Amino acid sequence: MKYSANCLLNRKEKFNLKLCINTELNTTNRNGINYPIIYGIGYEIKNKKAFWCNKFLNKGPDMLARSARHFSDGGNIQIYDPLSHKLTIGPFSYVSDFVKDCLSLPRKSLLRYFSTSPEQEPVHFVDNLLETFKFMYDHQSPLETYFINNKPKIYSKQLDGSWKEED
């Protein structure tokens, strides 16, 4: 039986997803290279509907700072509080010595060295990476140039779905 990614979408049943591991069920093969069928799926609690979440046009506020944070030694953290509808990016720093060199690397090299699966990356992967490196180059000491007075960046979600930075 061929697995269909639509099996999680448009379900009438209620479900409580605690952990979802997709191995070969989420794999398709194109020209000898394995690709995921689903790059992202979300579940909206209010409407109790699953939906594709890999094609959001709006990825939320301050995407460059959020991306640059992955180059810090802070590890992964939860930045969105669904109860207050606030997204908080706490102050962080990183070693920026390598950034200037990365900005001049060929696109193929960036893809090769910064992706765990270069053949499967979406077309915008390298562009996003270069934008992140540009942000890091512009803010080589983010604790001084971006997080003024060591204050976090806090954004609240508005009723219309937009984000507003708090003072």
TrEMBL record:
From the record, what ranges are coiled-coil? Answer: none
Q: Name one GO biological process term.
A: ubiquitin-dependent protein catabolic process
**Which Pfam families does the annotation name?**
N_Asn_amidohyd
Keyword flag NAD: no
Keyword set for this entry?
Hydrolase
Is-annotated flag, keyword Secreted? no
- A single GO CC term, please? nucleus
Give the GO molecular function terms. protein-N-terminal asparagine amidohydrolase activity
List, alphabetically, the InterPro entries matched: NTAN1 (IPR026750)
Which PANTHER family does the entry link to? N-TERMINAL ASPARAGINE AMIDOHYDROLASE, PROTEIN N-TERMINAL ASPARAGINE AMIDOHYDROLASE
What protein name is recorded for this chain? N-terminal asparagine amidohydrolase
